[in-house]
Protein: Cytochrome P450
Organism: Scheffersomyces spartinae
Amino acid sequence: MLLDVIVYLLQHSLQTLFTLLVTFGLYFFVLYPFVFSPLRDIPGPYIHRLSKIPALHYQRVGKWIRRVSDLHEKYGDVVILSPTEISVNGDSKYINDIYIKNFPKSPFYENFRNHGFKDNIFSSLENDRHLGYKKLVMSLYSKSAVFSHKNPTRQNIVNKVRLVVDNIYQSSVTGNQPDYINAKGEENIHSKGFNLQDGGKWFNPSSKTKNLGIDVYPLFASLAMDVVSAFELGVENGSNLLKHPEQRGIVATHALQALMGFWTTLMPRFWNWAASSRIKQASVVIEEWQLAMYDVAEANVPSFCEGQNMTTLEQLKKNGLTGKNAYSFLSDNIFAGHETTAIQLAFLTFELLRPCNFKVQRKLIEELQKTFGKPKGPQDYIEDLETVDSLPYLDLIMLENSRVHTSIPGAEPRIVDRPYYVNVYNKDSKTSKQVGIPVGTTISCLPYGMHRVESVFPNSEHWIPERWMPYEHETPLEYNSRITTQQKYMMPFGKGIRMCLGMNVAQIEMKMAIANIYWHCNSKLCEDWCEITSKENDPVLSTSPVPIGNSAPKNKTDIEKMTMYDLYTTRPLNDECWLEWYENE
Ligand code: HEM
């Protein structure tokens, strides 16, 4: 009987092939997505139900955050991204369920391993393994540890911030040491200097002698690198980029490697194929640079007095994580810590100088001068971390900046590991229904989207620090309730047990930098670097929000040049931001 069937099929091979193709097509293109898929009731475009390829494509070309935001706009709070992945937004309940209740991380993170695929706290997927790591080091990163007079981080932040102020005076205010290195742009392949290949001639064509433009992006990245590497390895063993501008190329080298984020995290097998020789060389240089720093730290173990915390390296070693097993933690922190901090500071200084925000910059300077008086000279610095930390206006500027320009706007994917239901709203019938999400599904919130929920943050695209203050006629109760809601939607440092370990270091470092810089100086955009849209006095253009994207039509105006790159970790489109600094009256 079976033989007869086989013979029949072979004799009618064309018809058999046709029938098989139609059956397969029917199943793959119709039955699975609409009848059998457990995600069939999740709204979203047809193409995303069929395959992971569209999601991968948008991530590869740097249009994914825009795409997911648009999908939510069109389909609602819950959308399908691929046959096994959904995105949830628009309701803080999802932040609570996924991140605070701790769904484990998706394999996306596994590829943040370093030094021969050695695990670290950021890349660990399973909750219990992560908790084990966290217990080893968390006490070092608490706010009280960072602020403690016994630990060196406090004084180190003060010292490094002094160097930033000195740099701004030397290179911009007085013009004594112009920023020729960055003007030439030899290291940063996206910079104006690199692309013009004019040896930096575009810079300062009017031969001004003071208030020159400087590229603050590598300056802030150097601050963050110096602070975080000293934190991990000891003050004597960290990088010294602020003192040695000629060594700052390492920041651009990191930025080059970070461009491979898609291949590193989602297509690691094709990394070698996709990487240019320049990028491969960058990876080698970075690893050598890191290992050289770790060698110095191994040979020069700081002495720890009674009650003083160890460095991260020594703490890891004490707990049995040695060699590359420890270095993987350090390299991850150095990478994650320097880039994110520089991004926040660059966008913050950019926002503060836009004419629509002049009044914010003025108010900040007033707050600083009211609290600390006026500086007695360029070498007078604010050193009081506690007072800076408690400045209310500075605090809300930072908050608003981390909302609009969150350094990690990209989805933070987790895996559903327990029965879970989402609320799907049907716009046509105006009804909602609970849809069960199978265990194993990838689920994520998009910080970029959560920070732009219009009902919670009206005019959400706009940078408005005042939204964190009481509105006129708002009672204290109403104000508190509004701020509590706004906070529930914020995830600039993530949320839950996997939230940023270095948050306390980064926050006070950024506040100290901004407080010291604006206590002394105010800023303008460098007109040699970009066209200033706001000069046109166009009320729409001059206040238009900074977009997110992978390119800018002409890449000439301030807004174009400061476009947030559409990546898991964003950055200014050209990895540069040129500002001029003027001493305050
Ligand atoms: C403005 C600066 C920073 C921002 C905006 C930031 C943001 C974040 C975010 C959003 C996450 C969670 C990512 C996710 O779950 O997908 C994270 C995790 C992490 N960050 Fe940061 N970060 C900053 C600075 C730092 C610094 C300075 C360090 C190190 C000293 C650091 C170390 C870490 C680590 C180790 C994790 C993983 C924590 C865990 O899984 O337990 N970050 N950060």
